[in-house]
Write a structure and sequence with these properties.
- The chain has 320 residues and is an alpha/beta fold.
- It has a single domain, classed as Alpha-Beta Complex (Inosine-uridine Nucleoside N-ribohydrolase, Chain A).
- Helix 2 links the parallel strand 2 and strand 3.
- Helix 1 packs parallel to helix 12, helix 4 crosses helix 5 and helix 5 packs across helix 8.
- It is globular, with a radius of gyration of 18 Å.
Length: 320
């Protein structure tokens, strides 16, 4: 019997984090050792509640959940309520949702350090929100990245397109210092699903409607929590040239799909990366270094193409 892939998932649970989590929970060859929560799409408290809602929907409340960083390293916070809803899951509350007393008492960063030390060289860390928890883990234990099998990130950009600032992708722009620390301090194999990559490998709306129309409890949950973001996206597509409004983009699902199926990514750029911290217009922008000007030994894999049919299959299975 083949050993299961061991995953640690760090989220700022909005709608696409929920989609990605449900994909990982449905994968038969994956064991999620823990879910760590970070500020981002909504407040930390909402993020924790949202993860518990997802686990309840999937009948997987045995998966441990840990609360982590409630703000960026420098303290300023931004949220994405226009897309995800104020609560992060489309503002369709569930009065039967498990309370915050269902969280583990251990802080997310301490849980990360402990879990990875218990399984050295075996854990794949997937980060789908701001990288604050990862940066704090690095500061507490500089050997933390060496103990990871690999790191998969949804965040950053490769063509300087922004979605929250002129040149900044949301997760990196939320905490540029954390993103900088992780991209310059983690030397484990690092795979990045950028904003433009997800948009360039989007799914048709016909698939989206087929996906959420399945007659299951999970699909009903997804229909409810996705309605707000669907309406927002459609309203933007009527008077916008933005690439992400044209089709269905479940950003975080790309990083999770890559982590659970190594054949998902069909093409990538292998080069050093960093993050701009001081630019007036470019703060939080990820910088690619194909010419080697940064003189960094560690290079990341920047995803460029993927197997769209495989993504569809993983998403469909997540709703069954």
């Amino acid at each position: 019997m083949m050993a299961k892939k061991l995953l640690l998932v760090d989220v700022d649970c909005g709608v696409d984090d929920a989609q990605a989590l449900m994909m990982a929970l449905a994968a038969p060859d994956v064991q999620i050792l823990g879910i760590t929560c970070c500020h981002g799409n909504t407040t930390l408290e909402n993020v924790c509640k949202n993860v518990l809602r997802v686990l309840k929907t999937c009948d997987r409340l045995e998966v441990p959940v840990y609360g982590g960083a409630s703000r960026a390293l420098l303290g300023q916070n931004m949220h994405a309520s226009n897309y995800h809803g104020v609560d992060g899951l489309g503002d369709v509350p569930d009065p039967t949702c498990p309370g915050l007393d269902s969280l583990k008492k251990e802080h997310a960063v301490l849980a990360m350090l402990r879990i990875v030390s218990e399984y050295p060289g075996q854990v794949t860390l997937v980060a789908t929100g701001p990288l604050t928890n990862l940066a704090l883990a690095l500061n507490m234990d500089p050997t933390f990245p060496q103990k990871l099998k690999s790191l998969f990130i949804m965040g950053g950009n490769m063509e300087s397109r922004g979605n929250i600032t002129v040149c900044g992708e949301f997760n990196f722009a939320c905490d540029p210092e954390a993103a900088y620390a992780v991209l310059n301090g983690f030397e484990c194999p690092t795979h990045i699903a950028t904003w433009e990559f997800t948009c360039n490998n989007s799914l048709p709306w016909t698939f989206y409607h087929e996906w959420i129309s399945q007659d299951t409890k999970k699909a009903e949950f997804m229909r409810k929590i996705s309605a707000h973001s669907f309406a927002f996206t459609k309203s933007r597509s009527n008077h916008s040239g933005e690439i992400w409004t044209r089709e269905f983009v479940s950003c975080d699902s790309y990083a999770v799909a890559a982590a659970i199926d190594e054949s998902f990514v069909s093409s990538s750029i292998h080069c050093a990366v960093s993050v701009e911290l001081s630019g007036v217009l470019t703060r939080g922008m990820m910088v690619l270094d194909p010419l080697g000007k940064l003189q960094k030994d560690h290079k990341a894999f920047i995803m460029t193409k993927c197997d769209i049919e495989k993504l569809k299959s993983l998403l469909m299975e997540a709703m069954k």
